[in-house]
Amino acid sequence: MRYLSRVEVRLKPGYLDPEGESTRRALQDLRYRVRRVGVAKVYEIELTASSLQEARKLTEEMCRKLLSNPVKDDYSFEVRKLGR
Amino acid sequence: MRYLSRVEVRLKPGYLDPEGESTRRALQDLRYRVRRVGVAKVYEIELTASSLQEARKLTEEMCRKLLSNPVKDDYSFEVRKLGR
């Protein structure tokens, strides 16, 4: 069966976010009153698995093995079944 | 008052997503049965505005002026008030 995993990867609190900082400065240069900008990445993954439970287990593995850096990233995900 | 805007920027359907494709290949190399991977970016922006309505208007402007490329990106956002 097919599943869609939506994974969000973000820097752990306290880690410098250079892209967020650049974005904050660019917005401030445009005169927006912005205090802070954080950037996260979303992966939408269509995968095949035998059950929702397996799809969740596989997604968790993908996060640990490839999608996130355990030293500096946090991740969270949702998995849902795709129609037939 | 302070608001938190959560903006998601993604490629319009039909645009080639090189980062998603690289990720798909890397996951397939790890033996995962993955059909497709799409990548989107999330900006979390703390801003100052006089009302929720203004915060939404400012966020919409930021999306058009800086955060998205109107040719190839779609965006969506949610805005909420931050405590006191």
Structure characterization notes:
- Two copies of one chain form a homodimer.
- Chain A has one domain: 2-Layer Sandwich (Mth169, Chain: A), CATH 3.30.1280.10.
- The model of chain A has no long low-confidence stretch (mean pLDDT 96).
- Chain A has helices at 18-29, 52-67; strands spanning 2-11, 34-48, 73-81.
- The first copy, chain A, starts with a strand and ends with a strand.
- The first copy, chain A, has 84 residues and is of the alpha+beta class.
- Chain A is 33% helix and 40% strand.
- Chains A and B meet through β1, α1, β2 and α2 of A and β1, α1, β2 and α2 of B.
- β2 of chain A pairs antiparallel with β2 of chain B, so a sheet runs across the interface.
